[in-house]
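User: quick one - fold this with zinc ion bound?
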Amino acid sequence: MNNINAINNIIKEHGWEYLTDEQKIIKAKDIWYRKIRKVSDDFENDRDGFVEWYLSHKKRVCHCCGVSEDDVRRYFYNNKDNKKITRNGKRGYMLEIDKENNFISEKPYNKGNMFLLCYVCNNAKSNFINNYDDFKPISDGIKVFWDKELKKQNTYGR
Ligand SMILES: [Zn+2]
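Assistant: Sure. Structure tokens for the protein plus zinc ion:
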């Protein structure tokens, strides 16, 4: 099953690690096609370069708070019936691509300025903070939030 909906369902239900190498490449190409090519100077004409960048993240953890993608995925999956939390089930299951400095260019998703963040960090940082040092007091708080929430989930079963 290599269509993108099937791949997205595997990610949602089981996690990135359950994808085959081929499926990972298809998903990365899809991210490039849907978003990155439109917002990147470096990658607008370099799909393969983006795929290589994306797949180079072997340890999939939030660059700011350090939570693992799989913990976040499980959290949102367990809350999947609450549509408000996941924006109709679309967000939260994967780390998201953030641009650290929003104003380096009209199309700021560039090498050295792109990082994988959890949904909560990405949402909180928004467009008004332009470096992760300034964001650190907030991401430290988000780390506390995740520790507490994940502990709760472990207590009540997965
Ligand atoms: Zn985070």
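One thing worth noting: Residues 4-156 form a domain with the Herpes Virus-1 fold (CATH 3.30.40.220).
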